[in-house]
Fold this protein.
Amino acid sequence: MKKDYHISNALFVLPAVLMFAIFTIYPFVKTFQLSVYEWDGISPNMKFVGFKNYIDIILADKIFWKSMTNAGVITLLALTFQNLLALILAVIIDRGIKFEKFFRTVYFIPPILSGVVVGLVWKWIYDGNYGILNTILSYIGLEKCATSWLSNPKTALLSVAIVHMWKGFGWGFIILLSGLQTIPRELYEASSIDGADSFKQFYYVTVPLMIPIFFIVSILTILGTMQIFDLIYSMTRGGPAGATEVPISYIYRYMSNNELGYATAMAVIFGIVLFLLSILQIKISRKLKKV
Amino acid sequence: MSSKVEEAKLSSYLILLAIAIICLFPLLWMLSSSLKSQAEIFTNMSLIPKRIFFKNYSDAWVKGKFAIYFLNSLIYTFCGVLGILTIGSLCAYGLARLKIPFKDIIFLILIIPLIVPLPGTFVPLYVLLKRLGLLDTRIGLILCYINGGLAFGIFLLKSFFEEIPKELEEAAIIDGATKWQIYFRIMLPLVKPALATLAIFNTVAIWNEFLLALIILQNPLKMPIQRGLMVFQGTHITEYGQLMAGLSIATLPVLIIYLLMQKYIIKGITAGALKG
């Protein structure tokens, strides 16, 4: 009788557990297994190569490391400029302003758009021949700066990064704003009676209370940006000449070339890097909390 | 002193407004270009079309196959969201309220994707779907979408179920209700706000999804709109009017849902972010 009770309870959980086992756990484990083989995904015999894929990637694959650096550059830009902009906007709006709802609504539009839509619109804006950006530049007398933004190796990465930040800052903005709004107003009033101006208030009241939120936003920015793909694929497909290649686009490239062992080995290395980055962030945030 | 405050206020507004314009411009540019004829697109750089040209939309819809892509996206989004809500809420209720062995461990394992990034699992997922005969099938893509939304769904719903007072269930048991009746008639209606948040959040996520659709589908007739856009762009490179019409078709549903249901989307975002 009691056992029957348990079995029907398990029915509630079973569909989710089954799906998760098949579509998340199995692929996750399989990633490690495939990474020590040379396999085209079709032929019945997989050739065991041990750590050869890993060694090749780590020691010899310059494009893989370039893809990591590219994603790293976009991530650093997003961590600084994008989040700084998000913070400034959140602080201004938190201090109370008219049309608050309008601004909040508008800033969160780019994050809800699809990466492909954003990528394709901006690809046209950046276009060397027909793009509005060059038209605007020549209108204000800066023809010299005009270029094919996405096919010029010098400007491609920065151009992509700008679009990523354009699409992403509203995210940080919303999270930071909801954090700011939990700070009790009395703290500001008390500190202003003590003679603190708004900069001092920000430094001594806002910042210490916001540190946990800053870390959440940073972790999300790092993990989200390192795994950037849709924008890259729709704007440049990693080109020109690997100038905007990122880890996911590179893994996808090898997968489409039917080099599954190599692709999964890259996925493992990339996954470990992301894992270490998030552990590092959590460690730092714990330390800061103690101080 | 007060003029200084005024100045600060004014510059605040200028910053806010400038950023708002930068946010909106690409979107307005897309919409306005979608209403210009091919000739006007390259000559009239104004945001307002001289003559409204709807043919881009009808061409994109029929010749560009956006009717098919749009319908596919509707199917994937509807089935995906329904699956996430059903399977997710059943599991969350079980973990929150029923006696199940090892349920704390099961919960921790299920929410792993929220804590640890698992990049590149799409490669073995592709192999798996191929073996199961689910590659290039609608059901294969839908199953992946459901699985993708489960972790967050279970996480959010479990916390809602846990807040419901136990007395409600105990009273229902005394009245002779089975646990399935309790789940459907009492518990589910009480977590409606969480279900709404999840529904809208996942609608936007699935509608916008690209990578899984890219690796799973080959047949254009099965593609959702995000993939359709890439196919269209690849074959009609400089037909910007039609492309912008396609992009607008892909964007309008999400934009409308966002403007109507903003509250729920923001809730989903902040709940997702503050999980850490």
